[in-house]
Amino acid sequence: MNKKTTCLIFSLVTLFVLILSPFSEAFVVNRTPTGATIKWFTNNTTYYINTSGGPAGSLSAIQNAMQTWTNAPANFSFIYGGTTTSTAYGTLDYYNMIGFGSLPVGTVGENSRWYYVNTGQLLDCDIRLNTYYSWATDGSANSFDVESVALHELGHSLSLGNVDSPADAAMYRYISKGQIKRSLHQDDIDGIVFIYGPGTSPVYRFWSDNFKHHFYTMNEAEKNHLICCDSNWRYEGIACYAWPTQASGTSPVYRFWSDVFKGHFYTMNEAEKNYLICCDSNWRYEGIAYYAWPTQASGTSPVYRFWSDVFKGHFYTMNEAEKNYLICCDPNWRYEGIAWYAVK
Amino acid sequence: MFTRQKIVLISLISILILLFAEGSRSLMIELSTEELTRDSEIVVVGEVGDVMSFWSEDGTTIFTKAKVMVDQVVKGIHHTEVDIEYKGGEVGEIGLRVSDAPSLEKGEKVILFLKTKKIEKGVKVFNIVGNAQGKYTVREDGIAIKGGFSVVRDTEDVIDDYIPVEDLLNKIRSVK
């Protein structure tokens, strides 16, 4: 084969892989016939659980499944409303319940979703697990795992549809007896983030001309106090969005204060944090500032970290132009790399 | 020379297609054609006619009723048309979707595994066996594609989710 043909073959194969790859792992979102996304119009919904007909441990298994979706880094939470004796599966009573009951053979779990046709707003979502089959919460090989199936059906309650791949996604359309699938695949997470947006809060940025340092906080009270009552700090706006509580996949960003340098320092690096706590008296540990991603996740961007020998302080930014300017043109700042990933 | 290059190119693309096709289908576990056939009173090939959704008499749920013009009865007694009912649909401003329910669209060519649900004014109204799994959509190229959702089987069995229509019909006829 000559060089030209080899090149042609390579290009065609690459093109083919590129064309197919988006479809090999792609969440499905339910829509109305007019194209509106079917979804909750609030960022949480409450579920009541009826464990009658289920195995021992069903209550906590279903709660765990709810919590797994809640822990995803999306702006949505399932709230446990308590146990119920209701068996009103599939009726439009604006009361979401999960329970066990009869369903056709071949269906292990089913989800009934009521919605407004014009807007797609979800009104009521009930889940039933089929008592035709045997259930377990201990991973028994001859039974279906309550938590795994509840996780899948709760995905429907968020408006995610079944997928043909990846097979280890919670929303994969098939499940076998004894199969444990209690965690979310990135494809599931991408789906819930797509529908409800990332579950983040703003991180506010301040600058002090006196201390020559930046300060970052997610705490609204702290932000408001600095704006109203501390003339040392000038509010510069929202630096990024991050998670106030730990979501699946995120890690804590630790905050330190130095009386010596009159500045704050933030790190996600456990070794760095531990060293400062144990062995560097310049820094006082103040706690967890917020949570962010240690590696890039869907919808996140890098937070760049700089150090200044002149100001004896760190600076963090997500702004590419600001980063590039400091690297190219401001000798006061030395680029130290990506600190973590957050949402712009 | 160029012919050889073309063969290499076609082979590479074919391998790639086969790899992708296998990857997306090999883990599926479903109700088998045998099970669907055995559970069915009739199996028909036909075209979906009018589809209409309505509230149940007690006002608690929405059903959809579809008329199917029968081209061929593969199992069971002769019918020229059948009425099918399943849960879900849209009436006015309210919609209901059920995760395992089938969905029929007017003009669709289908193969359906059916069982009597009720008799209404002397006319049988059928359920689709195995919910969405009991419906095959027939493509213009003669391939039948199986519906199906979060369903299960104890063992990984032969699956007929993508099969030439004649092969599927022969399989159904062979079930004793």
Can you put this structure into words, describing what you see?
The complex is a heterodimer of chains A (344) and B (176). Helix content of chain A is 26%, strand content 31%. Chain A is of the alpha/beta class. The longest helix of chain A has 22 residues, at 3-24. The model of chain B is unreliable at 14-29 and 149-158 (pLDDT under 50). The chains are: A alpha/beta (344), B alpha+beta (176). Chains A and B meet through helix 1, strand 4 and helix 3 of A and helix 1 and strand 5 of B. Strand 4 (109-116) of chain A pairs antiparallel with strand 5 (94-98) of chain B.
Break the fold down into its secondary structure elements and pairings:
The complex is a heterodimer of chains A (344) and B (176).
Chain A: H1 3-24, E1 44-50, H2 58-71, E2 77-83, E3 96-101, E4 109-116, E5 122-130, E6 135-136, E7 144-145, H3 146-157, H4 186-196, E8 201-208, E9 213-217, H5 220-229, E10 234-242, E11 251-258, E12 263-267, H6 270-279, E13 284-292, E14 301-308, E15 313-317, H7 320-329, E16 334-342
Chain B: H1 2-25, H2 33-39, E1 42-55, E2 62-75, E3 81-87, E4 89-91, E5 94-98, E6 109-120, E7 123-128, E8 135-138, E9 143-146, E10 162-164, H3 165-174
Parallel strand pairs in B: 3-7
Antiparallel strand pairs in B: 1-2, 1-6, 2-3, 4-5, 6-7, 6-8, 8-9, 9-10
